[in-house]
Amino acid sequence: xxxxxxxxxxxxxxxxxxxxxxxxxxxxxxxxxxxxxxxxxxxxxxxxxxxxxxxxxxxxxxxxxxxxxxxxxxx
Length: 75
What we know:
Oligomer: single chain
Largest sheet: 6 strands, antiparallel
Strand content: over 45%
Structural class: alpha+beta
């Protein structure tokens, strides 16, 4: 097992997270959080041992943004 690093700075409902994979920002409250970082967009919800996690990869986000821009330009 290798070494890892993680540091977060709490700014109220916003957190800046620093790790080996890069910098991310997350918004929300305890039990419901949305994060945007190098791995993509992540949705996290849960309480009392039951959790739901969903990740939209960076590649899919870039593709969706490009598609959205093309759709706007066509109008």
